[in-house]
Design brief:
There is one protein chain. The chain has 308 residues and is of the alpha/beta class. The longest helix has 18 residues, at 235-252. The protein has helices spanning 4-14, 20-29, 32-40, 47-52, 54-69, 98-111, 137-152, 171-184, 194-204, 210-218, 235-252, 264-272, 281-294, and strands spanning 79-86, 89-96, 113-116, 160-164, 189-193, 223-226, 256-260, 295-299. The chain contains 13 helices and eight strands. α1 (4-14) packs antiparallel against α2, α10 packs across α11 (235-252) and α12 runs antiparallel to α13 (281-294). 29% of the residues are buried. A six-stranded parallel sheet has the order 3-5-6-7-4-8. It is 51% helix and 14% strand.
Length: 308
């Protein structure tokens, strides 16, 4: 093809058609990207090649228009149509846009955080959005130290954090931010609102699902138990559920985070008395030995951010 313009005109006229089809051919073959593509491949394309590829060229022009106008009816939303040469046939391929790739990456990151009975927006928490105040800086520093240490030696044992503070100071948010940062680095985390989980475990007895549910939590690569001590525990939840989880994770040296309104001493006192009012200090101490082995106690102080 020596003169692309003349050849394209010849193609349009060679069909011997008029009306709508003629207009369609003219619109397609005069599209700037179609002309440019044919020009750049003119040594490999014949008139017959272009004619037999007309349906694909038409598809390209239509989908390109939809892509540029954001039309949701396009064949592949989020993908930009591109012309390609497949031997002597012009074809259309769809290439993911930068925005789609960004969204897919964010979705992959969010999927690495399994949040059981946690607020939906918890997966959007970020270390970068964690406001640093005098009462929260120590916790942030400890969080960053853990993330860096775990990233460099994920198979080594790392003490996680036991975040303690009053309502609304950001304990849960910081846990979620740590989980998000670990997800960016390719690590999976399971976050569990423990009081709700405890209720579900009681209900699971009747359906014989205690074992599977317990295994899912206790074997998580990184586990975060949120709101420990928010409700009174039955002896069964304390010993057979929480105790089993912590025993397994201590033996396997798996990172285990906690958040609570109780400090360690307060949590031990809370665990000492069962729902029935029985005092069992030795069993509470057994639980706390595992908590202390798995984590370091870090205080967060400040205003209740839920009331702002």
């Amino acid at each position: 093809m020596e003169d692309v313009g003349k050849e394209l005109t010849k193609i349009i006229n060679s069909r011997g058609v008029s009306g709508r089809y003629h207009e369609m051919m003219q619109t397609v073959l005069e599209h700037p990207e179609v002309r440019q593509f044919i020009e750049s491949h003119k040594e490999k394309l014949t008139q017959a090649d272009i004619e037999k590829s007309f349906a694909k060229l038409y598809e390209f022009v239509q989908e390109k228009r939809k892509y540029e106008t954001g039309d949701p009816t396009m064949i592949a939303p989020g993908y930009e149509p591109k012309l390609t040469l497949n031997f002597h046939f012009i074809d259309v391929t769809y290439v993911p846009t930068d925005e789609l790739l960004r969204q897919q990456k964010e979705e992959q990151i969010r999927n690495r955080v399994s949040a059981l009975n946690m607020p939906k927006d918890i997966k959007r928490a970020s270390i970068r959005n964690f406001e640093v105040t005098p009462g929260r800086s120590e916790a942030l520093e400890a969080a960053l130290d853990f993330i860096n240490g775990y990233e460099h030696e994920p198979k080594a044992f790392h003490k996680a954090l036991y975040l303690v503070g009053s309502f609304g100071v950001g304990k849960t948010y910081l846990l979620a931010a740590i989980a998000h940062e670990l997800a960016i680095k390719g690590f999976e985390t399971t976050m569990v609102h423990f009081p709700t989980f405890a209720g579900e475990m009681k209900q699971a007895i009747s359906s014989d699902q205690v074992g599977p549910k317990l295994d899912e939590v206790k074997r998580a690569p990184v586990l975060m138990l949120d709101d420990i001590g928010a409700d009174s525990m039955s002896a069964w939840i304390r010993d057979d559920i929480l105790g089993t989880i912590l025993q397994y994770r201590m033996q396997e040296q798996l990172p285990t985070f906690f958040s609570s309104n109780f400090d360690w001493e307060g949590l031990e006192g809370h665990l000492t008395v069962s729902q029935k009012g029985d005092e069992e200090p030795l069993k509470a101490k057994r639980i706390m030995e595992r908590v202390r082995y798995l984590s370091q106690e870090i205080w967060l102080t400040g205003d209740n951010r839920r009331q702002k």
